[in-house]
Amino acid sequence: MFENLFSKPFGLHMTDSQVIATQVRAQSGGFALTALCRKELPAGLIQNGRIVDQKGLVPHLVQLLKDAKAKGVSSNKCI
């Protein structure tokens, strides 16, 4: 039932210093990385794993997603 809903999502990982978008595909014996994009963040947007400046973070996420699409992320579904 949910297989099509999450068939090709990309992963989004955020730390205090960067945001990373990745996409993988299933292959025999596991998974293969098909796309990776990383953007450094200025200090103060995320502190100790908590977003403290949402408005400041948004332009960096928008740019990351644009760059990720150019590097092969082919989904608008995120996990």
Q: Can you tell me about this structure?
A:
The chain has 79 residues and is α+β, with helices and mostly antiparallel strands. Helix content is 22%, strand content 37%. It contains 1 helix and 5 strands; from the N terminus they run βββββα. It has a 3-stranded antiparallel β-sheet with strand order 1-2-3, with helices on one face. The chain has a two-stranded antiparallel ribbon with strand order 4-5. The longest helix has 17 residues, at 54-70.
Give me a quick take on this structure.
The chain is α+β, with helices and mostly antiparallel strands and 79 residues long.
Question: How far apart lie the N and C ends?
Answer: 17 Å
What is the 3D form? elongated
Supply the helix-strand structural class.
alpha+beta
What's the helix count?
A: 1
- Overall radius of gyration: 14 Å
Strand content: 35-45%
Largest sheet: 3 strands, antiparallel
The portion of residues assigned to helices is 10-25%
